[in-house]
Amino acid sequence: MTLAPLVIPEIRGVEGKPAELSQWCVVPGCLSLTQQRHHLWPRSYLRGQPFEWVEVAGRVIPNSVGLCVRHHNEVTSPVGGHKAKITYEVDTGLLFWWELDGGEAREMGTLRGQALVAPEPVVKRVRREEGLCPSCGRAQPHEKRQTSNGLPKRKAKTWGLLVPDDGEAGTEILDTYVEDLAVLMGLDPDSPRLLRYHVLVPVLEWVNQNKHLFIHDWEDEDGAEPARPTPAPSGVGASEYESRLPGE
């Protein structure tokens, strides 16, 4: 039986692969090689589950250390027969080795090979790198980013468009048009969010306001009817407006 290094309600098991053990026994002054893996908080303390990592007062640490056979036997003796114990200090996050003799305990120092910053379990690191919650694995809510003017980004929806994908690569054609027009309009093609919308809306609006020009260019010239100028905008003379029309 193993004496838990610390007994408080805030200790819980954390999933992960076993931590790498040191080459030498971690007991201060021991010159033996590591021969056995000793779990600090036993399965019975962690609700019957064998966890290789534990969270203690908000800090995640490996739940095992490497010991030689002699020192492993000293901390796993039957109840009342322990010759040593390991304790955990919350303030420093360090483990200490104690020798027991006749009911008296004597601190021998910290376990060797302890890092000031405890390693992170593999499963937590992978989850964090993938943008998931390190503890439960669920997707984390994305922070609301702001635009260059400091305002929150606009809400957006997806508007699909079915395009051919045979000899005519529809997506490449549309992307090329959008990127070329974006440059012409002073937009940044490298900022794809809502880029198509900001290009297509003014282009379609111009076509809608200049239908006669669009139809004249769309139809064959031989069968096309003469283009009729649209009514001049309010406040602009007809001659002045017609002089602005391209190609006329």
Shape category: rod-shaped
What is the CA–CA distance across the termini? 97 Å
Instruction: Note the beta-strand portion.
Output: 15-25%
Mean pLDDT: 77
In angstroms, what is the radius of gyration? 36 Å
The class by helix and strand makeup works out as: alpha+beta
Q: Give the ordered list of helices and strands.
A: EEEEEHEEEHHHHH
How many strand elements? 8
- Relative helix content: 10-25%
How many alpha or pi helices? Answer: 6
How does the major sheet shape up?
3 strands, antiparallel
What is the number of independent domains?
2
Main sheet strand line-up: 1-3-4
Poorly predicted sequence stretches spanning 5 or more consecutive residues:
232-248
What does this structure look like?
The protein is an alpha+beta fold and 248 residues long. It folds into two domains: 12-129, no CATH class; 170-244, no CATH class. The chain is 24% helix and 16% strand. It has six helices and eight strands; from the N terminus they run E-E-E-E-E-H-E-E-E-H-H-H-H-H. The chain has helices at 69-75, 122-129, 170-184, 195-209, 211-218, 238-244; strands at 12-14, 36-39, 53-56, 59-62, 64-67, 84-89, 94-101, 104-110. Strands 1-3-4 form a three-stranded antiparallel beta sheet, with no helix packed on it. It has a three-stranded antiparallel beta sheet with strand order 6-7-8. A hairpin with a 2-residue loop joins strand 3 and strand 4. Helix 3 (170-184) crosses helix 4. It is rod-shaped, with a radius of gyration of 36 Å. The N and C termini lie far apart (97 Å). Residues 232-248 have low confidence and may be disordered.
